[in-house]
């Protein structure tokens, strides 16, 4: 599976799992379950849009690299870059939604980010095993053979 179909399946499955994980974690930290659900859904919408932008840009960069494939280092940089961008967008939203300080929102987001770095890494590994690598990560011979 390649292209926009791959991206849409990826982001949908990833965010459904992410909403459930976020709701549970925020509720376990003592916040009202309804507010936790609102934060999770709001963060998911932001994350889905960011995910499409980030992965498109990452694959654009990746396709131009001499070394192809997805090494541990490349996967880790992918996950960390995504989470850093998301943190910058989410801290103000979390602070507002939960009526907490930006500092508390940052701490909450850092905790969630640490969980999501692991979730993102494991999810990407599993997703690529189930659906195969995107064209940007395929060896050049295989990519050329599939294009014809």
How would you explain this protein's 3D organization?
The chain has 148 residues and is an all-alpha fold. The chain has one domain (3-142). Helix content is 82%, strand content 0%. It is built from 5 helices and no strands. It has helices at residues 3-28, 33-62, 72-98, 102-131, 140-147. The chain is elongated and about 55 Å long. The model has no long low-confidence stretch (mean pLDDT 88).
Give descriptors for this structure.
148 residues; mainly alpha; 5 helices
- Determine the number of helices (DSSP H or I, runs of at least 4 residues): 5
Regions with little confidence, pLDDT below 50 for 5+ residues: none
Q: Give the averaged pLDDT, no decimals.
A: 88
Q: Which class do the helix and strand fractions yield? A: mainly alpha
Oligomer: single chain
* Overall 3D form: elongated
Q: How many strands, what sense, and barrel or not for the largest sheet?
A: none
Count of all domains: 1
Helix content: over 70%
- Terminal CA distance: 16 Å
* Beta fraction: under 5%
The strand count comes to 0
The run of helices and strands is: HHHHH
Give me the Rg, rounded: 17 Å
Secondary structure layout:
Layout lengths: L2 H26 L4 H30 L9 H27 L3 H30 L8 H8 L1
Helix pairs in contact: 1-2, 1-4, 2-3, 3-4
Could you give a quick summary of the protein structure above?
With 148 residues, the protein is an all-alpha fold. It contains 5 helices and no strands.
């Amino acid at each position: 599976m390649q292209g926009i179909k791959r991206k849409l399946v990826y982001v949908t499955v990833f965010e459904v799992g992410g909403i459930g994980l976020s709701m549970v974690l925020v509720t376990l930290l003592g916040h009202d379950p309804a507010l936790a659900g609102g934060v999770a859904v709001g963060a998911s919408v932001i994350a889905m849009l960011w995910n499409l932008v980030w992965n498109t840009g990452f694959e654009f960069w990746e396709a131009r690299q001499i070394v192809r494939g997805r090494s541990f280092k490349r996967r880790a940089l992918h996950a960390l870059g995504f989470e850093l961008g998301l943190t910058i967008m989410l801290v103000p939203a979390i602070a507002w939604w939960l009526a907490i300080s930006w500092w508390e929102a940052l701490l909450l987001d850092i905790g969630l980010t640490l969980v999501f770095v692991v979730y993102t890494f494991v999810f990407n590994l599993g997703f690529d095993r189930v659906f195969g690598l995107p064209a940007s990560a395929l060896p050049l011979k295989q990519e050329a053979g599939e294009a014809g």
